[in-house]
Every structure is written in C-alpha cells, then in structure tokens.
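Page 42, continued from yesterday. The earlier attempt failed because a stray header line got pasted into the input along with the sequence. Redoing it now with the clean sequence only.
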Amino acid sequence: MKILSRLLLSTGILLFLTQSIIAQQDKSATVERGYQLMTTYCYACHNPNVTSHDQMLAPPMIMVKRHYQPNFPQRDDFINAIVSWVHHPSMEKVLMPGAVRKFKIMPPLAYPEDDLVAIAGYMFDNELDKPVMMTEMHNGADNRNQRMAEMSSLTLNDGKKWKVDHLTIETMKSVNTMVSDFSGKEVGDYRQLGKDLFAEAKKVLLDENNQGEAFEQLHAFFHGLENNMHQLMEVKTVEEGEKYKGLLEVHARLFDNYFEE
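This time it went through. Structure tokens are written below.
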C-alpha cells in the first residue's frame, strides 16, 4: 500500500508540474502573440522609435495605455474599449483629444477581433516600449526639468489674455460648477467625477475654432488639468478623492488668469 500511495503521489505531482509548465508555455505564447501583433498592426503609426515629433503619425502605445487605463481599470472593459475604438472610432469615444487635434481621428480598421483582443490584453498586462524621445529626455537629466517646464508653461499674449471662443468659456464654467456642486461620499463617486469632467473638458481641445498659439496655450493648460482628472479616476480612498478634487479645483480656477472670450 505504501508503494502504491507513493506512486500515486508521485504521479499527481508530475501531473501538476506538467500542467503548470504547459500553462506557463501557453501564457508565454499568448504574450508573444500580443506583442508581435501590436508591432505589426500598430507600430506602423504608433511607432515608439521615431526620433522627432515631425515623424510621429500617432501617439505611442504607452500613451494610449496611460489614457485608457484610468477610464477602464478592469481588464475586460479595457479590452472592449480598445477593440471598439479600432473598429469604430468616433469623437464621442475620444480619450486623447490633444492627439486627435494633432493627428486627426484614426480611420476604422477591419482587423480580426481575436487579434485586437490579444493586442489589448498585452497592453493591459505588460509594460510597453518607451518612445525613444521619452528615453532621451530622461537620459538628459540635467535639462529635463527645464524642458518639461517649457512644455507645460503658460504665458500671456503680450501681457493680455488669450482670446478663446464661447464654447470654451462655457465648458470651463461647466467644469467649475461640476466640481463645486460635487457631493459624492464614496470612492466610486470621485472616480465618476473624474470621468464626467474629462468628457466635458475634452470639448475644448476638440473645438476647431481655437487655433494657433491660443490653442497651444489651451493644450498646455489642459495637459495639467487632464492629469488631475486621471488621478481622480484612479483614487482608492475618499481622502485621495478629496485631495485630487481640491487640486483640480485650484488648477481649473487658473483658467481665468490666461483666457477670455
């Protein structure tokens, strides 16, 4: 009986190890497939290896992930959103309004759904390639803070406020009202506030009436505001929610210092 028991135990352990190895191999194959499909389908436009902004045809995939994950923190929701966007892109679904203004909305692509699911799953589960330009910026540590400040700084128009259209003014009033009237008490309420604010604020960057340097200043302003909204979408406690709501409120109030109708 002891010999039989040991044999059964050994067989069970061997079976478990075999199944674990097969599962690991399947996982590795799935990861490799997702990466290969992403480089084949997506890097034609979302190439992280370009060396200048003039060469860019679309934002790098790591930035796509950074905009989608706060809005869709659950894996299945993230995958469905990516698949839906690729098959049927629309202005209502835009999560990167600055990129759409710069590169225009992408055309619908009839890629197989299974391939897109593999790509989106890989994006959600893994670290993505950093753009060459981002890597070079981080390598130049001495000048990094100065360059980042130049990219995000706001200036007046020869001492005067920038002229923007009526939609922009009304949208910012709406954003401020949404923040001041917020009365949520749960973590989910703060996350939803971040999503609702983004859906409202993105109208400004998508508004074609804002052009030239005035738009560039708006883009710089909303870059910081968008970060505040993403932070709200990802809060884990009510205390965090209050903190980031407060930061967003302060940032939003700066609008009137730089822009007018």
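Notes: The first strand starts at residue 162 and ends at 163.
Reminder to self: strip header lines before submitting.
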